């Protein structure tokens, strides 16, 4: 039996057609979303092709499609608006975010239109006035880091087109209630969780055991993005598909509010989350990491 690469890999796969077909084999290019008895390939057009494992004749990994810098900037813009902290301010081409010191994302500056390192001193002053060290979110190509600068918490930013699934058992509300907060189990203030700029936010719950958040915001190019975050499943309810169903419900809710594309930000070491989102059609768009402003000055 032909060995397959890991779920999430972009491949060119050749497989055997039924005996009454005009030709014996055909090929499909896309990402593996399931490598079980039925191999599922998610194509660039959004189709999913199912192939019986025993019909796979050959497979090879192929490079990912290149992502343009402008596409990174647009996604990061939408993502910054979707987790802006309780205070935010534009400074030149930077979005500065302050969220009571809770979470890196809500307390970091995003260089969406970086022009010179002199801007970083202004960023550092803004955070110093609020009693926080200045932390910079550094996405690929939006800020080139000097050699040797230490970084922290590298993230994969994964993206996909939204396909409506019809999941109806995930309840989504405009704010987290006490049960949602108890299931989430992280000490993040409600006003940080509910903050969004020029968009809407929803909080999903499923089966009394899984919770998650989705923020719907716009990018400068007009794309309406849905950012899934804060997903947590109770330990005694894991490996039952709840996270997948919850995320599908959140994306359906976001699609109903105009979102056409979705993203997640996953710490590189979180292999379980990476596999989950890959199985849902998310692909690596770019990387990001955090760096202290003082290390750049």
From TrEMBL:
An example Gene Ontology molecular-function term: acyltransferase activity, transferring groups other than amino-acyl groups
Keywords: Acyltransferase, Transferase
InterPro entries from the UniProt entry: Acyl_CoA_acyltransferase, Bact_Acetyltransf, GNAT_dom, Rv0428c-like_C, SH3_Rv0428c
Domain N-acetyltransferase: 167-297
PANTHER family associated with the record: AMINOALKYLPHOSPHONATE N-ACETYLTRANSFERASE-RELATED-RELATED (PTHR43877)
Protein name as it appears in the record: GCN5-related N-acetyltransferase
Species lineage: Bacteria, Bacillati, Actinomycetota, Actinomycetes, Mycobacteriales
């Amino acid at each position: 039996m032909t060995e397959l690469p890991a779920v999430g890999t972009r491949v060119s796969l050749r497989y055997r057609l039924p005996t009454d077909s005009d030709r014996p084999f055909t090929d499909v290019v896309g990402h593996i979303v399931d490598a079980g008895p039925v191999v599922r390939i998610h194509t660039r057009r959004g189709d999913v092709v199912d192939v019986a494992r025993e019909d796979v004749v050959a497979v090879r990994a192929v490079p990912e499609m290149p992502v343009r810098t402008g596409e990174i900037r647009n996604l990061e813009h939408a993502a910054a608006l979707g987790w802006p902290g309780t205070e935010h301010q534009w400074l030149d081409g930077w979005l500065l975010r302050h969220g009571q010191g809770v979470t890196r994302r809500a307390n970091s500056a995003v260089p969406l239109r970086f022009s010179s390192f002199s801007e970083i001193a202004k960023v550092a002053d803004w955070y110093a006035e609020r009693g926080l060290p200045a932390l910079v979110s550094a996405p690929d190509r939006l800020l080139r880091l000097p050699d040797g600068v230490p970084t922290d918490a590298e993230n994969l930013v994964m993206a996909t087109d939204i396909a409506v699934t019809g999941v109806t058992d995930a309840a989504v509300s405009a704010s987290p209630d006490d049960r949602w907060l108890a299931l989430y189990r992280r000490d993040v203030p409600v006003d940080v969780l509910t903050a969004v700029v020029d968009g809407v936010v929803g909080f999903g719950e499923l089966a009394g055991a899984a919770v998650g958040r989705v923020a719907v915001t716009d990018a400068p190019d007009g794309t309406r993005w849905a950012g899934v975050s804060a997903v947590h499943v109770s330990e005694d309810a894991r490996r039952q598909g709840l996270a997948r169903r919850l995320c599908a419900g959140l994306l359906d809710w976001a699609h109903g509010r105009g979102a056409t594309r979705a993203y997640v930000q996953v710490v590189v070491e979180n292999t379980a989350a990476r596999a989950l989102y890959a199985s849902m059609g998310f692909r690596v768009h770019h990387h990001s990491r955090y760096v202290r402003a003082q290390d750049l000055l």
